[in-house]
């Protein structure tokens, strides 16, 4: 028997069998967009809370979305009415209880409380705020050459790591990990 007909028959059998396979079940997937309350469908910076809610920053629009899995609440974007800058768009993280939010921009540490964003710290000239992650009642603030802890109640700072006592500077970014850990690159 010639080899070519057997190979052709095998390919035809595989092709017919592949037609019977199904990929994902579209009924099990759900997607959300503007019709569901999001500011826009484009999402740039997303963060999750331990409870499973998400804070979503979008493109050049004045609001961001807080999503609990069922509904969307729009809140003002931290940049306000200023010109959009992609490098300064950072994730927004919720403090314990979810009522207070924190974020960083290139030029400031910002807190969201009672419906408005407030600048809580401006870094010294030549430095950028790379990330801000709540840790209990304090906020861990990352700059390219140091990690600092900010106590918003006392408005005090504590140095955690600096270029002098860390071998991994310059820092690039930071995000929360599991069990009160922080991941820093």
Notes on the structure:
This protein is mostly beta strands and 185 residues long. It has a single domain (26-184), classed as 7 Propeller (Methylamine Dehydrogenase, Chain H), CATH 2.130.10.10. 10% of the residues lie in helices and 38% in strands. It has one helix spanning 3-20, and strands spanning 45-48, 54-57, 63-67, 72-76, 92-94, 101-105, 108-113, 116-121, 129-135, 138-143, 146-151, 156-162, 174-176, 182-184. Strands 1-2-3-4 form a four-stranded antiparallel beta sheet, with no helix packed on it. It is elongated and about 80 Å long.
Quick summary:
The protein is mostly beta strands. It has one domain: Methylamine Dehydrogenase, Chain H (7 Propeller), CATH 2.130.10.10. The chain has one helix and 14 strands.
What's the mean pLDDT score? 85
Number of strands: 14
Q: What kind of oligomer do you see? A: single chain
Number of alpha- plus pi-helical segments = 1
Order of helices and strands: HEEEEEEEEEEEEEE
User: What would CATH call the homologous superfamily?
Assistant: YVTN repeat-like/Quinoprotein amine dehydrogenase
Question: Within the largest sheet, what's the order of strands?
Answer: 1-2-3-4
Low-confidence stretches: none
- State the end-to-end distance: 62 Å
Gyration radius, in Å: 23 Å
Sheet-strand content, in percent, reads 35-45%
Q: What top-tier CATH class fits best? A: Mainly Beta
What name does the CATH topology carry?
Methylamine Dehydrogenase, Chain H
* Residues in helix, %: under 10%
The coarse overall form would be elongated
**In this structure, how is the largest beta sheet organized?**
4 strands, antiparallel
């Amino acid at each position: 028997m010639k080899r070519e007909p057997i190979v052709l028959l095998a390919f035809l059998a595989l092709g017919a069998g592949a037609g019977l396979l199904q990929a994902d079940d579209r009924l099990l997937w759900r997607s959300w967009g503007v019709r569901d309350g999001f500011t826009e469908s484009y999402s740039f910076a997303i963060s999750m809370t331990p409870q499973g809610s998400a804070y979503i920053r979008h493109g050049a629009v004045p609001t961001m979305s807080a999503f609990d899995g069922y509904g969307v609440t729009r809140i003002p974007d931290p940049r306000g009415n200023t010109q959009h800058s992609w490098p300064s768009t950072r994730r927004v993280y919720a403090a314990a209880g979810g009522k207070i939010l924190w974020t960083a921009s290139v030029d400031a540490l910002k807190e969201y409380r009672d419906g408005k964003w407030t600048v809580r710290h401006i870094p010294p000239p030549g430095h950028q705020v790379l990330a801000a992650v709540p840790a209990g009642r304090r906020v861990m603030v990352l700059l390219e050459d140091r990690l600092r802890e900010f106590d918003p109640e006392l408005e005090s700072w504590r140095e955690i790591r600096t270029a002098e006592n860390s071998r991994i500077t310059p820092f690039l970014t930071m995000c929360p990990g599991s069990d009160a850990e922080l991941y820093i690159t």
